[in-house]
Amino acid sequence: MCLVEIPAQLAAELTAHLQDTKSVVKEFVYCLLIRGGDMAPTLYYLPPSPPCRSILLLAKLLDLELDLKVINILEGEQMKPEFVELNPQHCVPTMNDDGLVLWESRAILAYMAAAFGKDDSLYPKDIRIRALVDQRLMFDLGTLYQRMAEYYFPTMFMGAPFDESKKAKLSEALGWFDAILKGRNYAAADQFTIADLTLLVTLSQIDAFGFDLLPYARIKQWYRRCKNYLEPYDYEDINGSQALVLAQMLRSKIEECSCLYAQDRNSTAAQTSSEVVLNASMARHAKNGCYLIFIVGTKEEIVTFRFKIVQLRPHNVDA
Ligand SMILES: N[C@@H](CCC(=O)N[C@@H](CS)C(=O)NCC(=O)O)C(=O)O
């Protein structure tokens, strides 16, 4: 149970007051005190989701109890009417703190640090430092995380081939982040802030996906420093191991696509450019660009499309 701290003078006044009050009134006052301190914010989340991981890490740092509710987005649970009613954008993490419903992980981080921080070190009140923290939070949201997602997620979720231009965009963003870190131990302030937290979750995911971080010396030092700082706060359990879960999903998808590719190359060789019927899964991958295809039949529905494979592109996998 989370206890409310009552200043000593108020406690003394309350006790004195309760002593000459009837017991029914006493119970009412006790009730109010206990309820006020007992409501842990609810977090709707899924453990491997990177933005959810940042919220869990901050809760650990703040020693804040959360009422955790898993929403399995891989099973479409976020589309259940009661969740959409709460968050029309149906994404996790979503927090409900006594009726204040928030989503967008970086907004949740800012709220949690301001509302539950013992001091302002994680989200400084000094407006010039806070401006830098906010800029880094937005850099992560709109640039670094975004570019990581654009490069890896089409492959991880749909088996699309990697796009080299997206890789170059991610390298560019990492270069900017490396430059931001020039002369700094942490991303925005002299100490660890929520800017480091969200950037760390993104960076650890990029690392787990196998991106080469060697060219980014400052990032590598900062990465080590932040991991050391968070190690006593269940960093590995909450973030490190879950980043590997997504990396494994990516690897499995790559293997699945390579199999499809090999399987199809064989059938093409056997049938030497005769017509083939693609099943639904193959058709989906074909649509995602694994094959150059030539449609020779007419459409009834996707599973009965008839394609003539005229050329197979090398499967573009680099992780
Ligand atoms: N920018 C958001 C991203 C939230 C997001 O895209 N969450 C994903 C899981 S990582 C999700 O809930 N997807 C399911 C959906 O949007 O329906 C944040 O940082 O909170």
From TrEMBL:
<feature type="domain" description="GST N-terminal">
    <location>
        <begin position="39"/>
        <end position="120"/>
    </location>
</feature>
<dbReference type="Pfam" id="PF13410">
    <property type="entry name" value="GST_C_2"/>
</dbReference>
<feature type="domain" description="GST C-terminal">
    <location>
        <begin position="126"/>
        <end position="246"/>
    </location>
</feature>
<dbReference type="InterPro" id="IPR004045">
    <property type="entry name" value="Glutathione_S-Trfase_N"/>
</dbReference>
<comment type="subunit">
    <text>Homodimer.</text>
</comment>
<dbReference type="GO" id="GO:0004364">
    <property type="term" value="F:glutathione transferase activity"/>
</dbReference>
<dbReference type="Pfam" id="PF13409">
    <property type="entry name" value="GST_N_2"/>
</dbReference>
<dbReference type="InterPro" id="IPR040079">
    <property type="entry name" value="Glutathione_S-Trfase"/>
</dbReference>
<dbReference type="GO" id="GO:0006749">
    <property type="term" value="P:glutathione metabolic process"/>
</dbReference>
<protein>
    <recommendedName>
        <fullName>Glutathione S-transferase D7</fullName>
    </recommendedName>
</protein>
<dbReference type="InterPro" id="IPR010987">
    <property type="entry name" value="Glutathione-S-Trfase_C-like"/>
</dbReference>
<dbReference type="InterPro" id="IPR036249">
    <property type="entry name" value="Thioredoxin-like_sf"/>
</dbReference>
<dbReference type="InterPro" id="IPR036282">
    <property type="entry name" value="Glutathione-S-Trfase_C_sf"/>
</dbReference>
